[in-house]
From TrEMBL:
This is Nif-specific regulatory protein. CDD domains: AAA (cd00009). InterPro entries: AAA+_ATPase, AAA_lid_NorR, GAF, GAF-like_dom_sf, Homeodomain-like_sf, HTH_Fis, Nif-specific_regulatory_prot, P-loop_NTPase. It comes from Aromatoleum tolulyticum. Residues 477-500 are annotated as: Disordered. It holds the Pfam family HTH_8. GO terms for molecular function: ATP binding; DNA-binding transcription factor activity; sequence-specific DNA binding. GO terms for biological process: nitrogen fixation; phosphorelay signal transduction system. Required for activation of most nif operons, which are directly involved in nitrogen fixation. Residues 204-432 form the Sigma-54 factor interaction domain. Keywords: Activator, ATP-binding, DNA-binding, Nitrogen fixation, Nucleotide-binding, Transcription, Transcription regulation, Two-component regulatory system.
C-alpha cells in the first residue's frame, strides 16, 4: 500500500474514533462511565496499551477518573501528586509531552505500578484537559513498539488533544447538570418539607375530644399499608386527613395523587385513573399515564368514591384485589404500587342493601374506617378555626382584622351544615366585606337575612351517613369585651328591613339578582352549584331563561 493510501486509511480511523467517542460522551449522564468507555475505544481503535484520565481536585491531588489496561481495579486507583514527574510538567505548562521510550527517561516515575520489565521501547503521551485555558486534568496513553508500523507521535498528540478537549467540554456540561440537579434536589426537599409541614397532623386544627380521637386513629393507621376509608359529611376535612395519613406513612417520600370521582363522567374517569394508549379513543393523540401510575410508590386519594357507577366499581375492585390494571386501549398489564385512601359522605351500607354499591368493593374499602365529626359535633373547635382562618386572611391580604365576642357567639350558634368549609367561607366573606378593622355582628350574613344554612342542613340530613342534629340559631348577646364598633351603615338597616323572610324568597331573590345564573347565585350565597340545584328542586323554583 502506498504512503498516501496509508495516510488516508489512518485519517479514516481517526475520524471514526472521534465519531464513536462523541457518541459515547452524549450517551450517559454518568461522567465516569463515559470516561471509561472513551478509554476502551482508544485501546481498541488506536491500539493503545494503557490509557487514563485524571482530574485535579480541590485537595490539589490528581484523582484518576478512569483507566484502561492498568493492572489494578478502579476501586484501588492511586491518588497522584501532580507536582512530580511528567504529569506535573504538563499541568504547569499546559502543553502535551511525548516520551519516545519511558524506560530510558528519568521523568517517567511509573506511579501507576506497571511491570518495569515491560517498559522497554514503550512510548508515552500526556495531554492536558483544559477549561478556559486552565488545566483541570490530564489524558495519558502509551504504545508498545511495532516494527511494522512506527509510532507517529504527531498523530497521537493530535488525536489525544481532540479527545481531551471533548472530555473537558463534557465535564463542564456534566458539572453544570450536576449543579442544577443539586439545586432541584434541595428545592424539592424544601418543598416536600414545607408541604409535609402544611399537612402535618399537628397542623390540622382541633382540640375537641372527637378530633383527638381522629388524630389517634390517624397515627395508628398511617404506618401500615392498609386501605383507609374516611367517612363524614362534606367539608369536614377528609382531604386534610388523607394528606396527613400519607405524610405519616412509609410512603411519605412518594407522590400524593388525588381525584374527585364525582367530578368526572365514567368514560373520563376510567382514562383518568388508568391512563390510555395513543389512539385508544377520539382525541387520544398520545400515550398518557393514569393516576394509579402517577401515584407509584405513594398514595392515591379517591374522594367521593360512593358516587362511582356499578360498572366502574368492578374495574376498581380488580385493582384493589389484584394490584394490577391496563390502560384504556392497551393490553399490557401494569402493577399498581399504591396505598389507597378513599372518602365518601354517602351511606355506603344503605347503598349496598339497595344494590347500588358492590358489597365486595365495600369490604375491600372498609379495612380501616375513620369517621370525621361534623362541625356541629365539635363546636369547641370553632374559636380555634376562626383564629386560623382569620390569621390566614390577614397574612394573605396584609390586614389586622379581629372579631368581636358577639360575632364569635353567632358563629358558635350556627348549624354549619357545610361544616369547616362553610365556616371558612363565612369568615372570608365577613373579613372581605367589613368596613371596620373588626368583624362585628352586623357583618354576619344571618344578621342580614342572607344565611342559607337551613336549606343546607336539610340537604345534609337527607344525605348524611348518620343523623344530623340541628341547632337553632339564636340572637347573639351584645358584646361585652369588644371595643366600641363604629355605627352601622344605615344602608345595612334598610337592606335588613327589605330582606326576604323565607328560605324560598331568599333563593329567588339571589337568582333574580344574578340574572338566573345558578353559578353566580351559588357564589353569592356561598354555596356550590349542586347545592343551589338541590334547593331549586326542593322549593319547586322554575329557572327562568333570560
Amino acid at each position: 500500500m502506498t504512503h498516501s493510501g496509508n495516510h488516508r486509511r489512518t485519517s479514516d480511523i481517526d475520524l471514526l474514533t472521534i465519531y464513536e467517542i462523541s457518541k459515547v460522551l452524549t450517551s450517559s449522564l454518568d461522567f465516569r462511565q463515559c470516561v471509561q468507555s472513551v478509554l476502551r475505544l482508544l485501546l481498541t481503535q488506536l491500539h493503545m496499551r494503557h490509557a487514563l484520565v485524571g482530574l485535579v481536585q480541590s485537595d490539589e491531588q490528581l484523582h484518576i477518573l478512569g483507566a484502561a489496561g492498568v493492572p489494578w481495579p478502579m476501586s484501588e486507583a492511586p491518588i497522584l501528586d501532580p507536582g512530580m514527574g511528567v504529569i506535573s510538567k504538563v499541568i504547569r505548562s499546559g502543553s502535551p509531552i511525548v516520551i519516545p521510550d519511558i524506560a530510558a527517561d528519568t521523568n517517567f516515575t511509573n506511579r501507576t505500578g506497571r511491570d518495569p520489565q515491560q517498559l522497554a521501547g514503550v512510548s508515552y503521551v500526556v495531554v492536558p484537559l483544559k477549561l478556559d485555558r486552565e488545566v483541570i486534568g490530564i489524558l495519558s496513553a502509551d504504545r508498545h513498539p511495532d516494527a511494522e508500523q512506527p509510532v507517529n507521535f504527531e498523530r497521537d498528540v493530535r488525536i489525544l488533544s481532540l479527545v481531551a478537549n471533548l472530555l473537558a467540554q463534557t465535564y463542564r456540561l456534566h458539572q453544570s447538570v450536576a449543579a442544577d440537579r443539586q439545586v432541584l434536589i434541595e428545592e424539592s426537599a424544601r418543598l416536600q418539607k414545607q408541604l409535609q409541614g402544611s399537612y402535618d397532623i399537628e397542623n390540622v386544627v382541633g382540640r375537641s375530644k372527637r378530633m383527638k380521637e381522629v388524630f389517634a386513629d390517624v397515627h395508628q393507621a398511617a404506618p401500615s399499608g392498609a386501605t383507609v376509608l374516611l367517612r363524614g359529611e362534606s367539608g369536614t376535612g377528609k382531604e386534610a386527613i388523607a394528606h396527613a395519613i400519607h405524610y405519616l406513612s412509609p410512603r411519605a417520600k412518594g407522590p400524593f395523587v388525588k381525584l374527585n370521582c364525582a367530578a368526572l363522567p365514567e368514560t373520563l374517569l376510567e382514562s383518568e385513573l388508568f391512563g390510555h394508549e395513543k389512539g385508544a379513543f377520539t382525541g387520544a393523540t398520545s400515550e398518557r399515564k393514569g393516576r394509579f401510575e402517577l401515584a407509584k410508590g405513594g398514595t392515591i386519594f379517591l374522594d367521593e368514591i360512593g358516587d362511582i357507577s356499578p360498572a366502574f366499581q368492578a374495574k376498581l375492585l380488580r385493582v384493589l384485589q389484584e394490584q394490577e390494571f391496563e390502560r384504556v386501549g392497551g393490553n399490557k398489564t401494569l402493577r399498581a404500587d399504591v396505598r389507597l385512601v378513599a372518602a365518601t359522605n354517602r351511606n355506603l351500607e344503605e347503598m349496598v342493601q339497595k344494590n347500588e354499591f358492590r358489597a365486595d368493593l365495600y369490604f375491600r374499602l372498609n379495612v380501616v374506617t375513620i369517621f370525621m365529626p361534623s362541625l356541629r359535633e365539635r363546636k369547641d373547635d370553632i374559636p380555634l378555626l376562626v383564629d386560623f382562618f382569620l390569621d390566614r386572611f390577614n397574612r394573605e391580604n396584609r390586614r389586622q382584622l379581629t372579631i368581636t365576642p358577639g360575632a364569635l357567639e353567632i358563629l358558635m350558634q350556627c348549624n354549619w351544615p357545610g361544616n369547616v368549609r362553610e365556616l371558612e367561607n363565612c369568615i372570608q366573606r365577613a373579613a372581605t366585606m367589613t368596613r371596620s378593622s373588626t368583624i362585628r355582628e352586623v357583618d354576619m350574613r344571618c344578621q342580614k337575612g342572607q344565611c342559607f344554612s337551613a336549606v343546607l342542613l336539610e340537604s345534609a340530613q337527607s344525605r348524611a351517613c348518620f343523623p344530623v342534629i340541628g341547632v337553632p340559631v339564636r340572637s347573639a348577646p351584645p358584646a361585652r369585651t369588644a371595643p366600641a364598633a363604629p355605627a352601622a351603615d344605615p344602608g345595612d338597616e334598610v337592606a335588613a328591613a327589605r330582606a326576604p323572610t323565607s328560605e324560598r324568597e331568599r333563593l329567588v331573590d339571589a337568582m333574580e339578582r344574578c340574572g338566573w345564573v345558578q353559578a353566580k347565585a351559588a357564589r353569592l350565597l356561598g354555596l356550590t352549584p349542586r347545592q343551589i340545584g338541590y334547593a331549586l328542586r326542593k322549593y319547586n323554583v322554575e329557572v327562568k331563561q333570560l
